[in-house]
Design goal:
Catalyzes the condensation of acetyl-CoA with acetoacetyl-CoA to form HMG-CoA. This protein is of the alpha+beta class. It is built from six helices and ten strands. The two termini are 34 Å apart.
Length: 253
C-alpha cells in the first residue's frame, strides 16, 4: 500500500480475520471403541480426552473436506472469490503425488473468473497447516500483496493401524481468512522456530495410509521443540523490545 505522499506503508494488524471448521458426519463413539479394543473404561475418553472420532465415508475425501469448509467460510463472510489473492493448503493426506488440493479448490473460483491466485500445498505432518498460515501472512505483509485476502486451509484424514495410536485419529478441515486489521494478529518480527531431523512420525510406505510412529520419541521431540521455541521467542522478544528477561511474555505460555 502507498500513502498520499507515495511512500510505502505496511498493512497493519495482519492475522486471522475469520475461521470456519468442518467435520464429517460419521464418527466412532470412543466409549464403544474402548469396548471393542478390550481396554479399560475411560482409557480413551478420560485418558486421551476423546469422545468421538470422525471418519470419512466413500463419498468424502480430503478434497471434498477442503471444498466444503472453504465454501462455508466464503458464504458466511459474504465474499466473492475475486477477493482472494492467495490460497494455500496444509495437509499430509495425499491422494495424488503431483496434483495439489489447492488446484482442486480452484474449481470454486471458476465462476468468478479469478485465476490469479498464488499458493500451493504445504506438507510436513501437522506443521503443514502452520507453514501455510505463516506463508499467507508473509504474503499479506510483503511487496507482492495486491490488497486481496488470503485463504489458508488445513485438513487431514488421520488413520492409524490397529494399536495404541488408533483412537487419536480423525478427520476434518479448517479454513482461515487472512488479512489486515484482524482480531487475531501475528506480531510482526517476533516468531521462533525449531526444526530437527527426527524419525518420530513418518509415512515411508506409499502403498499404505498408515504412518510409522515412535510414540515415546514423538512426545520427547514435541517437548524439546516447545522448550527451544520458547527460549528462542524470549531472546527475540528481549532484543525486539529491549526488555530484560521474559516476564511479560511468560503470561502467554
Amino acid at each position: 500500500m502507498s500513502n498520499q505522499n507515495g511512500h510505502h506503508s505496511w498493512p497493519e494488524k495482519v492475522g486471522i480475520i475469520d475461521v470456519e471448521i468442518y467435520f464429517p458426519s460419521y464418527y466412532v463413539d470412543q466409549n464403544e471403541l474402548e469396548i471393542h479394543d478390550n481396554v479399560s473404561k475411560g482409557k480413551y475418553t478420560i485418558g486421551l480426552g476423546q469422545s468421538k472420532m470422525g471418519f470419512c465415508s466413500d463419498r468424502e475425501d480430503i478434497n471434498s473436506l477442503c471444498l466444503t469448509v472453504v465454501e462455508q467460510l466464503m458464504q458466511k463472510r459474504g465474499l466473492s472469490y475475486s477477493q482472494i489473492g492467495r490460497l494455500e493448503v496444509g495437509t499430509e493426506t495425499i491422494i495424488d503425488k503431483s496434483k495439489s488440493v489447492k488446484t482442486v479448490l480452484m474449481e470454486l473460483f471458476k465462476e468468478s473468473g479469478n485465476h490469479d491466485v498464488e499458493g500451493v500445498d504445504s506438507t510436513n505432518a501437522c506443521y503443514g497447516g502452520t507453514a501455510a498460515l505463516f506463508n499467507s501472512v508473509a504474503w499479506v505483509e510483503s511487496s507482492a500483496w495486491d490488497g486481496r485476502y488470503a485463504l489458508v486451509v488445513a485438513g487431514d484424514i488421520a488413520v492409524y493401524a490397529e494399536g495404541n495410536a488408533r483412537p487419536t485419529g480423525g478427520a476434518g478441515a479448517i479454513a482461515m481468512l487472512i488479512g489486515p486489521n484482524a482480531p487475531i494478529v501475528l506480531e510482526r518480527g517476533l516468531r521462533s522456530t525449531y526444526m530437527e531431523h527426527v524419525y518420530d512420525f513418518y509415512k515411508p510406505n506409499l502403498m499404505s495410509e498408515y504412518p510409522t510412529v515412535d510414540g515415546k520419541l514423538s512426545v520427547q521431540s514435541y517437548a524439546k521443540a516447545l522448550d527451544k521455541c520458547y527460549d528462542g521467542f524470549c531472546r527475540k522478544a528481549e532484543k525486539l523490545h529491549k526488555t530484560k528477561g521474559n516476564n511479560v511474555y511468560k503470561i502467554t505460555f
